[in-house]
Specification:
Layout: H1 8-22, H2 35-45, H3 49-71, H4 79-96, H5 102-127, H6 135-145, H7 157-182
């Protein structure tokens, strides 16, 4: 069995994802996190499809473990919904590979925010005794999720998710683009 040296692209993208995931340990507004951006970036940038899931999920799990250890907030009963939306966002990234340009990346970021909101609030509705299990109560759960944490510095949790996804998507893809200008061997995204 021979050892294959990791490519510069793999090392750069993995490091960027790990650093973004660890930024969750810094003080930040509620839901203003790199979760969606990490999944999207990994889906687009990793050559092997399996790594588009393994590396971002591993970085996410590592940051959740660090949050659990430092603040007691990393692991929770709704993790399946967060990780499920994370995996679906990575699928959006895989689809985006040959379509990666600024407009499509930003639209995919907005789609990942919406996906996160829909899935995690569905999980709350499904697992909570606060709501009945009817379509009307599901809609009530979604409506209640929109202004949730309205007292937060940046507004609602939904808006923080959108702003966080847009900010971190811009940072990850922007830094990658700047790095490829300086180090062309990093090019993985074939922009149009």
């Amino acid at each position: 069995m021979s050892y294959k040296t990791p490519s510069p692209t793999f090392l750069f993208v993995s490091t960027a994802i790990l650093l973004a995931a660890l930024s969750r340990l810094l003080p930040h507004p509620f839901n203003f996190t790199p979760i969606g951006a990490i999944a999207l970036f990994g889906g687009v940038c990793f050559e092997r499809k399996s790594l588009a899931f393994i590396i971002p999920l591993s970085a996410m799990l590592l940051s959740d473990a660090a949050l659990q250890w430092t603040r007691g907030t990393g692991f929770h009963p709704m993790m399946w919904a967060v990780y499920g939306s994370f995996g679906l966002t990575a699928c959006i990234g895989l689809w985006l590979r040959k379509r990666a340009r600024v407009s499509s990346i930003l639209l995919a970021s907005l789609a990942s925010s919406a996906l996160f909101f829909l899935i995690t609030n569905f999980a709350v509705w499904l697992g909570s005794s606060m709501y009945g299990h009817s379509f009307a109560s599901l809609l009530a759960c979604y409506a209640a999720g929109i202004p949730f944490y309205n007292h937060d510095l940046m507004g609602s949790a939904l808006m923080n998710t959108v702003l966080g996804d847009l900010f971190f998507t811009t940072m990850l893809f922007g830094i990658y683009k700047l790095a490829t200008l300086k180090f062309p061997q990093l090019i993985r995204i074939r922009s149009k």
